[in-house]
Amino acid sequence: MIRESEHFWFNGRKSTDFNIRNVSIGGGAYEESMSSGKSIIEEYPNNASMPYFQGIQKNPKEFDVSFYFNECRNGYLIDDIIRWLNVDEYQKLYFEADIDRVFYAMPISDLTLVHNGLEDGYVNITFRCDSSFTFSHEMFTPILEMKKIPEQLVEISNLGYYNIRPRIWIKKIANGDITIHNLTHRNIETKFKNIDIDEELIIDGKTEIITTSKEKTHRYDDFNDTYVELIYGKNRLKISDNVKIQFYYEYIFA
Questions:
Q1: How many independent structural domains does the chain possess?
Q2: Domain around 207
Q3: How crowded is the C-beta side of 214, counted as CA atoms within 13 Å?
Q4: Which of 136, 104, 32, 83 is nearest to 22 (CA)?
Q5: pTM for this one?
Q6: φ, ψ for residue 82 (rounded to 5)?
Q7: How many CA atoms lie within 13 A of 193 on its CB side?
Q8: Short-list 207, 206, 205, 202, CA closest to 219
Q9: Do 146 and 91 sit in the same domain of this protein?
């Protein structure tokens, strides 16, 4: 995916904006990792001959990219590229061979310019990701107004490799507790109580941060501490009839 792509997007811009293209240095077949490595966490108790297994730690993805100048390089072009790549937070990175797979990455190496002493050459750079995963682009449902219709269900598909916790916007429009039941996933209930009419909530299942439009108010005590989780396949959600609601989510891949 990476090696076979001539062009890529990073930090909101495409490589063609800088008249460069991704290249594979050297000959032969492309070699790319299909998943990240992992480290075993273990400990040797006193005088033990075998370690005590504590778990695993997945290593964030890391890979090299080389890009070639399609035209004679100059100081202004190099400055533009440095400004483009000089980020202090993870940014979206994806390649044209599979634009639906997104890395959240940042450069961690020096930009190494390899040239012939004239104005031709290419740049090597190492990217490090925020995790061992890749993602889809963010998707979202329309704003749904739940009404008093028997068995009105919302269906959301998860086509990734792992369960996902969506980010959810909710506006309370009538009395009663706010409930979401995932009928596909053991009928697990997400519940909020004491929410005011016209109050808006944003529930970020990934970061476990809940915000409200009501000033100087926290809603963690009014929450049953169970975030909506979407399993692989089609998820059928039953939602209380007193809200407007919208879901934001990304598929997660290896």
A1: 2
A2: 139-253
A3: 15
A4: 32
A5: 0.86
A6: -65, -45
A7: 5
A8: 202
A9: no
